[in-house]
Design goal:
This protein is 48% helix and 15% strand. By secondary structure, it is of the alpha+beta class. The strands form three sheets. Strands 1-4-5-8 form a four-stranded mixed β-sheet. It has a four-stranded antiparallel β-sheet with strand order 2-3-7-6, with no helix packed on it. Strand 9 and strand 10 form a beta hairpin. Belongs to the acyl-CoA dehydrogenase family. It holds the Pfam family Acyl-CoA_dh_1. It comes from Streptomyces javensis.
Length: 410
């Protein structure tokens, strides 16, 4: 395994690190203030528009996109540390047009979209002229098992008709959201993993009702997490993505790289929390000396550094495997990093909260928000238990006895 970065990747890291220090971190408080003072809590704050223009002018734009001629053409191994740097700020990924759910949606369009679909949706998404959302999770069923999805996509002549309810449809409340990529069932009688399809649904299509905006642990996200009702929503047959029955396969293709992005972003969260913890304990005095002199605090810091380094290596290994043998062959590692990275990030953030005392649970630092995000992301994009199941099944596979298919005997 070679985790060495190419000269181009190292140069991009230096540029992004400088950009974060010079522009993004100083803008965090401005972003929050503009959001609080605006008329629409979901509208893009002016400072974010300015940051995007600067990032694009400096070539720090669409770095996630490895397909076709649309992005920077970086490998997963080259992109991983860049997402870690961006992830040190909650607003960081959006600055570089590398934030979910748009990244996964753009990859879907790049890989499976028709030329017409790419022209209509992919190009404006790459230019940040519009935003998008992904509608998969449903309130009535355990959506971690795609077989449970109830939303129906029914063919009626030259249109598809959608009926169902989705929630935590992240991004749908952004005024710039123009596209919903929806997953539903086109044929409940088909083989298990050929029942689902993905459909491109324009946001302004009649029959779409946002019932409410869902918070995460009390925090409301600017993009919004919509509880959405689809009632007789009609779109042209040409809006099918990939083809009927390909929804499950497309979802798997979308989620693999996305989980690596989440994992590296989580390491960025952990690094930010560790930095804040170290600053706090060296400045704060209790029981006759700095908190940093307390043995338990030093253990928190040491364990945090060890755990971050361990999980970073695991993520880089996964990225290297995705680049060298493909996403399918790296399935176990990709599942593992989704669990490990968020567990480590949440643990480090928790220690940082404890080190800050009352300030750690307030809104005076970013720690409360990071605590909520790292906990919520252990459910989003597949709960930990689903990924642990994947790892265990692959680990156990060599130990299972081979049986005679005719007699069942070992």
């Amino acid at each position: 395994m070679d985790f060495g970065y190419s000269p181009r990747a190292s140069e991009l890291q230096d540029r992004m690190r400088s950009f974060m220090d010079e522009h993004v971190f100083p803008a965090e408080a401005v972003y929050d203030r503009q959001l609080a003072e605006g008329d629409d809590p979901h509208a893009l704050p002016p400072v974010m528009a300015e940051l995007k223009e600067k990032a694009r002018a400096e070539g720090l734009w669409n770095l996630f996109m490895a397909h076709g001629d649309w992005g920077a053409g970086l490998s997963n191994l080259e992109y991983a540390p860049l997402m870690e740097l961006a992830g040190r700020s909650i607003i960081g990924p959006e600055v570089f047009n590398c934030s979910a759910p748009d990244t996964g949606n753009m990859e879907l369009l790049a890989l499976y979209g028709t030329p017409e679909q790419r022209e209509r949706w992919l190009r404006p998404l790459l230019d940040a002229e519009i935003r998008s959302c992904f509608a998969m999770t449903e309130p009535e069923v355990a959506s971690s098992d795609a077989r449970n999805i109830r939303t129906r996509i029914t063919r009626d002549g030259d249109t598809y008709v959608v009926n169902g309810r989705k929630w935590y449809t992240s991004g749908i409340l952004d005024p710039d959201c123009r596209l919903i990529i929806l997953m539903g069932k086109t044929d409940p009688e088909a083989p298990t993993y050929r029942q689902q399809s993905m459909l491109l649904v324009p946001r302004n299509t009649p029959g779409i009702t946002i019932l409410r905006d869902l918070p995460m642990f009390g925090y409301s996200d600017r993009l919004g997490h919509g509880d959405v009702l689809f009632e007789n929503v009609r779109v042209p047959v040409a809006n099918i993505l990939g083809g009927e029955g390909e929804g499950f396969a497309l979802a798997q293709g979308r989620l693999g790289p996305g989980r690596m992005h989440y994992a590296m972003r989580a390491i960025g969260f952990a690094e930010r929390a560790l930095q804040l913890m170290c600053e706090r304990v060296t400045e704060r005095t209790a029981f006759g000396g700095p908190l940093a002199d307390q043995g338990v605090v030093r253990e928190w810091i040491a364990r945090s550094r060890i755990e971050i380094e361990q999980v970073r290596l695991l993520v880089l290994k996964s990225a290297w495997l995705m680049d060298t043998v493909g996403n399918a062959a790296a399935r176990m590692e990709v599942a593992a990093i989704k669990v490990a990275a968020l567990e480590v990030a949440h643990k480090v953030v928790d220690r940082a909260v404890q080190a800050h005392g009352a300030a750690g649970v307030s809104d005076d630092t970013v720690l409360g928000r990071l605590y909520a995000i790292t906990r919520a992301l252990r459910i989003a994009d597949g709960p930990d238990e689903v990924h642990l199941r994947t790892v265990a099944r692959q680990e156990l596979a060599p130990y299972k006895k081979k049986t005679d298919p005719t007699t069942g005997a070992a």
